[in-house]
Protein 1
Amino acid sequence: MLIKSMETILTCPGRNYLIVKITTEDGVTGYGDATLNGRELSVKEALDSHLSKYLVGMDAERITDIWELVYRGTYWRGGPVLMTALAGIDMALWDIKGKRYGAPLYQLLGGRCRDRLRAYFHVHGHTKEDLADRIRQRMEDGCTCFRYSFDTKDSRQEGLYFNQPHQDISLGRRIEVTEGNIGKPEVWDTEEYGHDLIRVTSYLRDTFGGSIGLIHDSHERFTPIQAAAAAKQLERFGLFFLEDPVEPVNVQGLELIRGHSVTPIAMGELYNSMKDCLIPIERNLIDYLRLDISHYGGITPSMKTAAVAENHGVKIAFHGPSDISPLAHAALAHVDFAIPNFGIQEWVDHNEELDQVFHTNVRYENGFITIRDTPGLGVEVDEDAAREYTYKPKFLPTLRDREGAVHNW
Ligand code: KDG
Ligand code: MG
């Protein structure tokens, strides 16, 4: 099973996605996701101009060996660009292995630990009443857990709001901005947002009682003491988890939060290697590990880290936003099925264009994700359709505080 070629396909069926395609000399093709939102071209260049040179002629069956070669054998390692490139390679190799043995990926990872995966979606409301309506709509399709966001009224300026970026696709507002808007950051006030968070959460609990799971992603907007105060006040509303209360490497910040509340804490979409998350896992500072399989080097390191987390009672809740492709969603779902410590899965709706490019056998229905028994990742890529949706430069939003200084968003 020698590797004959490795190519990349950049496509934009609604959002930009970078696909890695590896073909073996005997004609087996595997696909992986190497999308890094707003940095797609950097990853593409790393793959096309550098990493592909190491792969040609290697045995596609030696996944761990290739992973090690690309990770540390090439000396420069880590960081989102290289780890996303490596993830694309890793997923494509697992896809090949599944096809070679005629087995769905989860079988190669040890087989099913469960029949279906509980999923949650993003819900956004301009006001708290809009948010409750949006939750009711989503409840109709069986969803039982929601990652809620909202806009906060600026108490000092009539008509202005502090807008939380979100990915509630049905509302048509996504987190990325177009080229012309890069230099136009929005204004942000964490104190006003922090108060509103408590008000909105209280309203949601009053409205829906304890029947739904509530997740809030504070996206590193708080300082450690603000985060600890928020976690403490949110305690009485029984969140499913509070995500990214502080920056991912701020261990002392996490300790401060832990010392003041029992609100479950989730972290992980910015982690790139086990070194980033070992201390929070071992010291029990987090309850859910939100690795992004596409930015963490793929399936191989995610399985290893999930096993470490399992030993410490930490559950896996992979990052699953719309800025990684259905190939990544399939890869993480296979892992979710195969690990004992699965927690919950973030999921997104598909639009028509996305379904034209990616024909996936991993489906959401009535609150849960199921998977069909097709070899490998179970996603066919329509390359002709992919090439028709050409790349459109998009960037992540930026925030500044009232004084004009850069603020985490
Ligand atoms: O590209 C950034 C997004 O993936 C991120 O903002 C989404 O935080 C996010 C989440 O939890 O889905
Ligand atoms: Mg997040």
Protein 2
Amino acid sequence: MIIDPKMEKALNGQVAAELESAYLYLSMAAWFEANDLGGCAHWMKKQAAEEQEHAMKIFDYLSARGGHVILEAIPAPRSEWKNATEIFEQTLAHEQKVTQLIYALVELSMEMKDYATRGMLSWFVQEQVEEEETAMNILAKFRKLGDIPISLAMLDKELGER
Ligand code: FEO
């Protein structure tokens, strides 16, 4: 069954949201590079690549359902932060926001009895649990150790192993 235009529009919005996430994480990677935290930069670049994969999952799904992917404008991301801890605070807050967007799509798919989209979104529901958990764990470490230069160097090395 060809996807309903209302759902098509909502999923196009999510493609943009995932690409906006990629753009934000790439900007964070750039900040880390500029601040000599190469391990954190590596972690953020990987995160940005994952977000692009998320966008492509929805892109391909829309195409498979006979939909048309319309790319929207992506606003410029923030480029300055106080420190690494603030970056991971924003990462967690951002992932929590994305979770809400996914939940709204799940609700819409149920209202519209679009079972195929509901099924596709299950992957994202689970992925968001992981995304939030990862961001929470990293943030906890930076809150505890991020202000101590030697510990910060250790955390940077750890993130570089992603
Ligand atoms: Fe695509 Fe980080 O959620």
Protein 3
Amino acid sequence: MLSYAEVRVPATSANLGPGFDCLGIALEIWNTVRLEAGSSGVTVSGEGEGSLSLGRDNLVFRAAESLFRAIGKPTPQLSLTCDNAIPLGRGLGSSSAAAVGGLVAANALCENPLTQDEVLALAVEIEGHPDNVTPALLGGCQIVVQDGEELVTSAVPLASDLWAVLYIPSQQMPTQQARGLLGPTVSRADAVFNMGRAALLVNALSTGDVSLLRTATQDRLHQPARGVLFPAMARIIRAALDAGAVGAFLSGAGSTILALTVDREMTVGYEMADMADKAGVPGDVKVTKVSPQGAHVVSEG
Ligand code: HSE
């Protein structure tokens, strides 16, 4: 076993509009996780400092422990240091990043006994949202579907260099609450609406035909219902599109709104913030990109 491993793990945005529970992208916003053998304690800086647990129930720590369990070894004395840039409860995959970060760091510390597929399966078991976990581990844009016991993933090649402009409300939108708003069934018309758009979206991204993205990022399976918790959502999405974004949607279960742009990224961010301000939704704009890279080791020894 090594004495320490430090990994970076990206934020993610799930659903991308129509791909509810089966599409996600990694973003260039990174948490750092460092595990050291032989000492103990949990430290958190940045996002979640003062609110995330510093005990053994910390999600990153639990993920690390589950790796030791999976390989049949007792968890050694471990100290964990987290430096977080991913805001919590905003639909940017902070809990997936925690699970993936803990697993990848522990796997590196043990000199990689588990394959990437095994790490993925464990991360999904811990966190429960494959559409965030998969891009957090593998990077880029990922399709993920469950086939019986098997998780089938496929990377969507991205033909255009798009900006991801985020409007991140100050208000959190807990995933469980946002999922609780969704009905148990959907109409055939809504299913067809989303299936067509999800297919269109994959084609738009992989061919670079960004003119399709405005239609391809529309959704009827989760955003309208979630609008009850976040009435200004539709107006902020509209403001982004009116300002020149090629597509826009609720990121994961919210509360972040993500707009895709080829240019005018500052204007799009400004107009989203202006609309949010008028609607009484305080928050921040962040301009980022899709990260081709997922979780990776930055140093070990
Ligand atoms: N696809 C999930 C949802 C993502 O929208 O509820 C949760 O992070």
